[in-house]
Write a structure and sequence with these properties.
The chain is an alpha/beta fold. It contains 11 helices and 20 strands. The strands form 4 sheets. A 7-stranded mixed sheet has the order 16-15-14-17-18-20-19, with helices on both faces. The chain has a 6-stranded mixed sheet with strand order 2-6-5-4-1-3. A 5-stranded mixed sheet has the order 7-8-9-10-11. α8 links the parallel β15 and β16. α2 runs parallel beside α4 and α9 packs parallel to α10. It is globular, with a radius of gyration of 22 Å. The chain binds S-adenosyl-L-homocysteine (SAH). S-adenosyl-L-homocysteine (SAH) binds next to α7 and α9.
Length: 395
Amino acid sequence: MARLYLQNGKERPVLRRHPWIFAGSVDRLDGRARPGDTVEVLSHDGQLLGRAAWSPESQIRARMWSFDADTSIDHAFFKKRVAESVARRQAHPHLRGQDGVRLIHGESDGLPGVIADRFGPVVVVQLTSAGADKWREAIVAGLKQATGCEAVYERSDSEVRKLEGLEPTSGLLDGELPSPLTIIENGVRMEVDVVGGHKTGFYLDQRDNRLLTGQLAAGRSVLNCFCYTGGFSLQALAGGAASVLSIDSSGPALATGARNLALNPSLDASRAEWLEADVFEALRSLRAEGRTFDLIILDPPKFAPSAAHAQRASRAYRDINILGFRLLNPGGILMTYSCSGGIGQELFQSIVASSAVDAGVEARIIHRLSAAADHPIGLAVPEGEYLKGLACQVG
Ligand code: SAH
């Protein structure tokens, strides 16, 4: 096995159990390793710190699989890590009864580059690092054994694979996909398109926040911006919303949203309106028309994938949040999110605060929002905290 020596003084992150070794921390690699091969990680003076997957093409040159001298990285290792990750979900009362659950959340579950989501009988995997790609078979076998699922589908079409020198790849790895595939999330049936949908097919991270939206929506007029397939919209209707206007720029996502509504005959479809539009433009038009709402959801895509994009992204967040605040009735609630890794919680709150000032409203935070429990954040991996949200009520 090749040996990766860290530069003198660069051991600290690894000793604190951060799994990423950046190119600038590597002193040298003794021996040969191909992308994804396991290497031993040593301090500059030769102390064995653990084992990692080698990623020669990436700025993150290696990702730690283990932080001790004794653990071997083999099939049994992946079987155990996958089983432990799945068992943690099964043990959680909020997750146990759910059809749609994230089973593996990458670094925060000790499996860098591995995402696995279960939708009913189907597990979708996304492998985004050279090491995860290399151990595909072991990871899939572990998932099959731990879940007893009927099918495994791969959605490794994320852009980040390019940074690892990996080609995008998608397709069925095992079994057969039911068509259509649906899940029930807190009483609402939703179609999940694991083949053509965004990410793995569905945004599981917002499950708890969709439930809260339903609880806050009773009797309110609701505007759901960036609605995708209508997750927030349907929970709002289930919670007794008076009306729900849902906006997205994706026609197929809206069509799925309308189908989802039809899948739930107990919901009053006459209260729902779907609009294919750019949210930035639509919010301005709604303002020009004098429309107002009691509850507004802003769940935009990632405007800032990294800190380098933070400034431009901040302007985009400000823009929509100012417009959102302006469209609220007195006593109305803005539920506003950022899933940008490059925008931290503090920065996001200050953007929302200045948006309220610019909109001329007084607002207070009534809920701080984050991803659900199946998207844990390893204490050693603060990068795992990408989704942050605020529910703000205006005076
Ligand atoms: N809230 C959703 C997830 C939103 S994902 C849920 O709970 O499932 C972000 C969505 O924003 C995607 O559906 C994407 O199509 C849409 N989108 C991206 N840019 C947009 C824009 N400028 N205007 C309208 N929709 C946009």
